[in-house]
Amino acid sequence: MTHFAHEEKFFDTLDYSHASVHKKIHKDLLERFKGHQEEFEKTGVLAPAFFQFLKTWLTAHIMGVDVKYGEIAVRKAG
pLDDT tens digits, residue range 14-24? Predict the structure, then answer.
């Protein structure tokens, strides 16, 4: 949550037209994570679905969605 809060504040310093969509994606990711957390608290087991969720988040979100605002940040700094 802290990471997303910092990242979203950074959006506000950029001319990032997809900031609201990106914030919604963060909200959805946190909700999905919460579901996995609740399941773990009940069962004490990290299910394969949790690891698939992490893999998808790392590859699709970080390597896809986050790259877009990173490009804007680089242009602004340059």
Answer: 888 889 999 99
Q: What is the pTM of this model?
A: 0.80
Contact partners, residue 2, CB within 8 Å, separation at least 6: none
Q: Over the Cα atoms of the chain, what is R_g?
A: 15
CB contact at 8 A, 25 and 17: no
Contact between 14 and 72 (Cβ < 8 Å): yes
Q: Classify burial at 39, counting beta carbons within 10 Å of its beta carbon; exposed 0-12, middle 13-18, buried 19 or more.
A: middle
Residue 31 CA, distance from chain mean position: 11
Please answer whether residues 22 and 65 qualify as being in contact, where contact means their C-beta atoms are separated by less than 8 angstroms. Answer: yes
